[in-house]
């Protein structure tokens, strides 16, 4: 069975609100702290090659997924990313079952780019054997 490694990237808008819905003065620090927690959670979940890049309030979260097609890659990556965001006490309001938390991630785009193709050996078969 052939599989492909996909780099799945989620571009999102990260926001922070105060207890009464107001803008908080230290938003940048809060966002950075929460995204550090998201990275810790991705590592704890054993996500492959997790990455987070933050520019202003727009973050790109990425993981490497090895599966048979890009649809499965985005589904699996979405599960990793959403689980990590929730474990860091964030919310994902545009995903099903939104939660009312103090910081949230809104999906702006999601992509899966193939980076390498691999071949899984059948039981008893040597890969590359002639």
Q: Helices and strands in order, then pairings?
A:
Blueprint (H helix, E strand, L loop, with lengths): L1 E15 L10 H18 L3 E8 L2 E10 L2 H18 L15 E17 L11
Antiparallel strand pairs: 1-3, 1-4, 2-3
Radius of gyration: 17 Å
Let me know the number of strands.
4
Structural class: alpha+beta
Number of helices: 2
> What's the helix-strand series?
EHEEHE
Shape summary: elongated
Helix content: 25-40%
**Strand portion:** 35-45%
Main-sheet strand order equals: 2-3-1-4
Mean pLDDT: 81
Largest sheet: 4 strands, antiparallel
Point out poorly predicted stretches: 126-130
N→C terminal distance: 18 Å
What can you see in these coordinates?
This protein has helices at 27-44, 70-87; strands spanning 2-16, 48-55, 58-67, 103-119. It has two helices and four strands; from the N terminus they run E-H-E-E-H-E. With 130 residues, it is α+β, with helices and mostly antiparallel strands. The protein starts with a strand and ends in an 11-residue tail after the last strand.
């Amino acid at each position: 069975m052939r599989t492909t490694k996909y780099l799945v990237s989620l571009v999102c808008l990260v926001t922070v609100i105060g207890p009464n819905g107001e803008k908080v003065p230290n938003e940048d620090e809060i966002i950075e702290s929460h995204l550090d927690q998201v990275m810790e959670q991705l590592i704890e979940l054993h996500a492959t090659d997790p990455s987070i890049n933050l520019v202003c309030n727009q973050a790109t979260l990425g993981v490497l997924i090895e599966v048979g097609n890009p649809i499965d890659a985005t589904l699996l990556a979405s599960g990793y990313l959403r689980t990590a965001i929730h474990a860091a006490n964030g919310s994902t309001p545009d995903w099903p079952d939104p939660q009312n938390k103090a910081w949230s991630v809104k999906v702006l785009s999601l992509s899966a780019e193939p980076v390498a193709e691999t071949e899984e050996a059948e039981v008893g078969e040597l890969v590359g054997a002639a």
